[in-house]
């Protein structure tokens, strides 16, 4: 019976079943296959050797994402000044002092009849909502936050209060621009006055008609209206970049630290 034909040199060799050469070739192939498969089978059947020390298996890529609970613990430590990550109160005061230095220098070089204006954000700039943030686990929940605002219990941020009083002393007009809605005007005014911000040129809150605008677009438009009244915007203080950037911008812009939330 014909098995196969192979070309050897110029001759054709016919291998027939039962040929001794065929048997040798098949035996060699079987030996090679056994040599390859035997270690694999043994590894699958043999239990892993006990390691000499505990092993911890993880996904290194996933571990690069910070753990949320650990981040919240760090936020609390930063606010309470109990960690090596810094001290929130110290950092706020440092930025407020920088603003005061500029305010004094700029007021000393006021041009004749020049109307100087300072702009302050409210939340985490003039007033602190940390108590509510802590209770909510640093999560924004509108009903709870609205109730907090309407309670008018937010304490003043000390450095900003010092800055506000310096502006009053120097005759610099103070404008508050906040993303709070106009429906919270009464509560906001009550809270500001109770904390020592007793007088201001204007308190600008966000009307419903601007709901589709970004924060920086709303605040930029508010600053433009102030400038259109003949004021020179010499200083702007806020905790978000969206409080500060956008045309027109103040001469000097001071950003407070705020690791608690972000407003684009």
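^ structure tokens above, recovered residues below v
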């Amino acid at each position: 019976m014909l098995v196969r034909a192979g070309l050897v040199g110029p001759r054709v060799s016919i291998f027939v079943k039962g040929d001794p050469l065929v048997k040798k070739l098949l035996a060699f192939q079987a030996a090679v296959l056994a040599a390859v498969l035997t270690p694999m089978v043994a590894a699958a059947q043999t239990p892993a050797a006990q390691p000499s020390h505990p092993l911890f298996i993880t996904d290194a890529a996933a571990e690069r994402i910070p753990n949320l609970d650990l981040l919240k613990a760090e936020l609390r430590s930063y606010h309470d000044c109990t960690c090596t990550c810094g001290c929130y109160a110290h950092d706020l005061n440092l930025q407020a002092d920088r603003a005061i230095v500029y305010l004094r220098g700029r007021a000393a070089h006021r041009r004749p009849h020049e109307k100087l204006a300072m702009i302050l954000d409210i939340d985490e700039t003039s007033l602190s909502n940390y108590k509510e943030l802590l209770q909510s686990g640093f999560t924004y929940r509108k009903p709870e936050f609205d109730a907090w605002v309407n309670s008018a219990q937010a304490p003043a941020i000390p450095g900003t209060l010092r800055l506000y009083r310096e502006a009053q002393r120097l005759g610099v007009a103070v404008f508050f621009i906040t993303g709070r809605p106009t429906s919270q005007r009464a509560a906001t005014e009550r809270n500001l006055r109770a904390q020592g911000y007793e007088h201001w040129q204007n308190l600008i809150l966000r009307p419903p008609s601007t709901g589709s605008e970004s924060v920086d677009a709303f605040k930029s438009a508010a600053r433009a209206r102030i400038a259109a009244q003949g004021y020179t915007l010499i200083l702007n203080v806020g905790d978000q970049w969206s409080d500060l950037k956008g045309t027109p911008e103040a001469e000097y812009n001071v950003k407070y630290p705020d690791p608690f939330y972000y407003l684009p």
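The chain has two domains: 2-41, 88-255.
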